[in-house]
Specification:
There is one protein chain. The chain is globular. It has 2 domains: 5-209 and 300-321, Aldolase class I (TIM Barrel); 222-281, no CATH class. The protein has 338 residues and is an alpha/beta fold. Helix 7 (123-131) runs parallel beside helix 8 and helix 9 (182-190) packs across helix 16. The protein has helices spanning 5-10, 27-35, 56-63, 74-77, 82-88, 106-111, 123-131, 153-167, 182-190, 200-203, 212-218, 231-236, 252-256, 261-266, 272-281, 304-320, 322-326, 331-337, and strands spanning 16-18, 39-43, 68-73, 94-98, 115-120, 136-140, 146-148, 172-176, 195-198, 226-229, 245-249. Helix 6 (106-111) links the parallel strand 4 (94-98) and strand 5 (115-120). The longest helix has 17 residues, at 304-320. Helices cover 41% and strands 15% of the residues. The two termini are 39 Å apart. It binds flavin mononucleotide. Residues 19-22, 24, 43, 45, 71, 73, 98, 119, 140, 143-146, 176-179, 197-201, 203, 290-292, 294 line the site of flavin mononucleotide. Flavin mononucleotide is lined by residues 19-22, 24, 43, 45, 71, 73, 98, 119, 140, 143-146, 176-179, 197-201, 203, 290-292, 294.
């Protein structure tokens, strides 16, 4: 088994976290991931302000048989801060905050005895997370499904590792964005992460709340078939801060509005009624099927526990066989003697 600072500090068997995906990571998925030795984090999403979100208390009750966390979209939580207290009362081991300033919420989280995980997209966000006393920071690359920033996982994770090591070496680092199998986990650990946060792969798991039509569609898609844009949030009237865009499978709406983001901003909310109706009906030509570039690595919808085990096993095999696969005896000393 792979042992890291994350497995030790969070008391889990595998350095694999299931992302708190709004409308997707309910209690059953979080519980299945934790039962398999990862860490499942229930998606508290928009803290109720979006409408049509699952009942968080009910989902947390489902997760409760195992260690679990809860996650919120920080700017939405600012509008409904009581949701944090309600969630903390259910005894999560950690709270995962993303997309906004975590500092106002940190004291309450720490006082409740929960660990704080902050997902970040820039170095400035890392500084805010360290100011908040985050126990772990998630460096999220733009490959990720759902909302995110502009940096790419491959250079962002090691830069984050160096940045954190300089100021707060005990703070853990997790990598997110494009990690869907053991190759991704092994690579992230080599970049300096203590573990990974996985969304898209668990989005297509048996226990996820994802509609079957979305994962059936995804099974035919490649990593080329996603788009990151701010247009959809503007058109559907969800007031995301400008810094964050939304990656999803391409559909009629993303393609009609590709490259027209300023125009979409001016048309704020104009698609709201049609979008909500499409979401309710499962019409994916208009409503988003939310997945990242890793969709090209996904062809099935297995049990989440099987995903955790396969990912951990494959990463361990790759890491433990690396010396025999890549090292040439004598190569490095010979270079030094030149
Ligand atoms: C369907 C979906 C919904 C998401 N919702 C949230 C969310 O509500 N809050 C959040 O912090 N991150 C959310 N994310 C982003 C994840 O936290 C994570 O960064 C991302 O999934 C990692 O990249 P990957 O999708 O390539 O695994 C979501 C991702 C997906 C795919």
């Amino acid at each position: 088994m792979i042992r890291t600072r994350f497995t030790d500090t969070f008391g889990v068997r595998h350095p694999i976290v299931c992302a708190p995906m709004a409308l997707v990571t309910g209690g059953r998925l979080a519980r299945a991931v934790s039962r398999a030795g990862g860490l499942g984090i229930v998606g508290g999403g928009y803290a109720g302000i979006l409408g049509g979100e699952p009942d968080l208390a009910a989902e947390l009750a489902l997760a409760r048989k195992e260690t679990f966390g809860v996650g919120f979209i920080t700017w939405a939580l600012e509008q409904e801060p009581s949701r944090l207290e309600e969630a903390l009362a259910c005894g999560p081991s950690c709270v995962f905050l993303s997309f906004g300033d975590p500092r106002p919420f940190a004291p309450k989280i720490h006082a409740a005895g929960a660990k704080l995980i902050c997902q970040v997209q820039t170095l400035r966000h890392i500084d805010e997370a360290m100011d908040a006393g985050a126990n772990a920071i998630v460096a999220q690359g733009a490959e990720a499904g759902g909302h995110g920033g502009a940096r790419s996982t491959l250079p962002f994770v090691p830069e984050a590792a160096d940045h954190i090591a300089r100021r707060s070496p005990d703070t853990l680092l997790l990598a997110a964005g494009g990690i869907a199998d053991g190759r991704g986990l092994a690579a992230a650990l080599m970049l300096g992460a203590d573990g990974v946060v996985v969304g898209t792969r668990f989005w297509a798991s048996a226990e996820a709340l994802t509609p079957t039509a979305a994962t059936d569609l995804a099974a035919r898609m490649t990593g080329d078939d996603t788009r990151r844009t701010t247009a959809i949030d503007a058109l559907r009237g969800v007031a995301w801060p400008d810094a964050f865009s939304f990656r999803m499978l391409k559909n009629e709406v993303t393609e009609a509005w590709a490259g027209r983001e300023a125009e979409a901003r001016a048309a704020f909310g104009s698609l709201q009624a049609r979008y909500d109706e499409a979401r309710a009906k499962g019409d994916l030509a208009i409503a988003a099927a939310v997945a990242g570039e890793a969709v090209g690595l996904i062809r099935d919808r297995p049990a989440a526990g099987d995903i955790v085990e396969a990912m951990a096993r494959e990463a361990w095999i790759r890491l433990s066989t690396a010396p025999t696969r890549f090292a040439r005896p004598g190569n490095w000393p010979a270079m030094q003697n030149r």
